[in-house]
Amino acid sequence: MNNGFVNYFKLIKFSHTVFAMPFALIGFFLGLQSIVPGTEVQGIRLFILVVSCMVSARSAAMAFNRYLDRSFDALNPRTAQREIPVGVIKPKQALAFTFGYSYTKRFTPLCHLVLGAGLSLAPIGAYLAVTSQFAVVPLFFSFAVLTWVSGFDIIYALQDEPFDRSQHLYSIPVWLGAQKALYVSRFLHIASFIFIGMAGWYGQFGWLYWVGAFLYGGLLIYQQWLVSPHDLSRVDLAFMTVNGFASMLFAGFVITDLYIQ
User: Fold this and answer.
1) Whose CA is closest to 185, among 156, 161, 143, 217?
2) Under CATH, what is the fold of the domain 2-260?
3) What is the pTM of this model?
4) What is residue 122's predicted lDDT score, i.e. its pLDDT?
5) Residue 182, SS3?
């Protein structure tokens, strides 16, 4: 039974929740400040619901992606040991756990932007759950997530460029080549930092926010420095470690800033 849970966690890459979850928490705590004092219990209930919704939605999307791409995963040496290709989890079991993103790689190189758009719902969705209304600041955070995720997903896709090309799958690296794909990734990460700056300026955040923002920007630069078209050996470090640390560090500074002003 325990092995079953471990296998499902591996299937859905539960650790990748660290990417968008911190931004969902930013949206949540930003919205929580508008709740009338004395409704703390309601805030706790909303927190549990927002976190549960975030984890469930991302997990369902990943499970469907693994289900849909199982035949390609079995052929690709990098992914052949994933849970469905090796038979640890049956396709129907994965489907039962479950997002249109998974289809986009079959017809458009802009699939990275679709993934980014999906995760970008985290901050604005959490804010809406608390306040039931749109606002500009969480929208800037959503744009920051869209461009950040799209940028690092392009880096991750560099590993599969030869395989994707052989299988007639679409991606920015297949479309433009590795070097130009990295240029697009860098442009998107610059845009992400700009949106973070716009959120800070429009939301009139304090100095802690800006410390977190510049640390976030520095980690994006470091991520880009780690990878080159001729050396993909550090893609996993750039993808998982740096991005996870960037989102958690930034969220920590933003939420702290919200409550010390």
Assistant:
1) 156
2) Four Helix Bundle (Hemerythrin (Met), subunit A) (1.20.120)
3) 0.79
4) 87
5) helix
